[in-house]
Amino acid sequence: xxxxxxxxxxxxxxxxxxxxxxxxxxxxxxxxxxxxxxxxxxxxxxxxxxxxxxxxxxxxxxxxxxxxxxxxxxxxxxxxxxxxxxxxxxxxxxxxxxxxxxxxxxxxxxxxxxxxxxxxxxxxxxxxxxxxxxxxxxxxxxxxxxxxxxxxxxxxxxxxxxxxx
Length: 165
Known about the structure:
Shape: globular
Low-confidence stretches: none
Order of helices and strands: HHHHHHEEHHH
Distance between the termini: 36 Å
Helix content: 55-70%
Number of strands: 2
């Protein structure tokens, strides 16, 4: 009996780079201060963007409008049983950030409290604007709905996520 190959797009490098670049583009537009994305914050928001059902729980906590979810976002195996390891394993995110840095799509700054911040630059914005597939159109809707939770603390978001998991 032959095994059917399973292709998981999240593990494809170009897809991951595009998704991360798009995340930085959309969510950076909504902040007044530059540089809110540390490594752990990027991992957290990337996880939430992958699990929009979780986003609705966070929006409920802020009394904001919910995102209309597709059946796949509600009933897929990954939606029902999210992999919490993605919140704490930064290896993949570091790899993707290194690729974005090497292509000159993001810049790094150090905050006053010595945290490393990742900021999309003009080249990155131009590249992210070219991402126009149906997936990225849906991702844009999800990311726009995430804007109200940008001012929530990392620990507050984590506590809500942990209650869900």
